[in-house]
Amino acid sequence: MSKKTFSxxxxxxxxxxxxxxxxxxGDPFGGAVLSKIDSLDVAKLLAEAANEGLIExxxxxxxxxxxxxxxxxxxxxxxxxxxxxxxxxxxxxxxxAGIRVNTAxxxxxxxxxxxxxxxxxxxxxxxxxxxRKVERTLRIGALFGAKHYxxxxxxxxxxxxxxxxxKHVYTWLADGLNGVYDYIKANKLTSYVxxxxxPKPNEPRGHMFLPTxxxxxxxxxxxLKHPEFFGVNPELLQHESMALLNAVHTVGYLTSMKxxxxxxxxxxxxxxxxxxxxxxxGPEGLKETVQMFWALRKVGWKGVVxxxxxxxxxxxxxxxxxxxxxAFIRDCxxxxxxxxLLADRLVELDVAQLSDAQADLTxxxxxxxxxxxxxxxxMSTSIGCRxxxxxx
Length: 392
What we know:
Elements: E1 11-15, H1 18-22, H2 39-51, E2 57-61, H3 62-65, H4 82-96, E3 100-105, H5 124-143, E4 148-152, E5 157-158, H6 169-186, E6 194-198, E7 207-208, H7 213-223, E8 230-232, E9 235-236, H8 238-242, H9 247-256, E10 263-265, H10 286-299, E11 303-307, H11 321-344, H12 356-367, H13 372-379, H14 383-389
Parallel strand pairs: 1-11, 2-3, 3-4, 4-6, 6-8, 9-10, 10-11
Antiparallel strand pairs: 5-7
């Protein structure tokens, strides 16, 4: 079953990943709020959302779908394995709802084996294990027709600079990502149109080896054998905001480099830990979010917007773990629609003859749908303005 595209400029498709819906809402200070649900049940929730017209795509970590046993690195190929059967049961549900898969990503952060990193682990045996896990993820992604493979920096980072092998660490990372390209081509995994790097400044490690979009682009061009195959999927507002960077700047830079392959979307309080708030939720970021979509329209970018967030822990309902997850999906869809409608209000913005301050104030007035006469009426205490304020 095929679904039509969303296609409201600049968004062509909306993707809701398995990890967002399945998140049980634990944090470092407390356990899970929600009971864990099976990946097949997550697939059914996604199918329901697609049938309501709320999403068109999904994405996943390998561990979101099936467990990983390092002693059985090819269980996905064994028709007698539980993993083989489970993957096909999930695929059946997604296919019936017409859900496409945007990206597959390998979880190299959850298992304690990777506590010192995956592709950059100083132990060559662990790096080799991570590579085999990535290859398994690539096969799983191909089964689902994934368009991208995403390398999220996971635990590839450090706390103690003097413990890092700076001479080799970026070579190890390049070897891992070059291996992604080589495996895709060697095994004719034709669904993949590219691969992406998702940078992050810190968390779960104190510092990550690819902390920002600029670092990611530089690494792609300097270290990878096929830079044309690799792009960036920034998580905005979250990851760049953690480093006090601006989402409009990020998308402007990435589109100029032709490296914005798709966008991860949520909200964030600047300079904090990774909040992963749903889009537009929280005390800040409205103007930045709207102007981000305005900028994407201005430069002519079109592509997938993928939610990468979780519901607020306060919104998790242990008595209704399914119902609150459905509400979360609707909240994300509402937030994106709201941001795009607000971006529409900036279409008529003409800043050519305005000072920087007036350009910003004019954009804000358009965003809030305030007319100049009403603003003037509240600016001044003159008799004429007071009369205007009261409609006289």
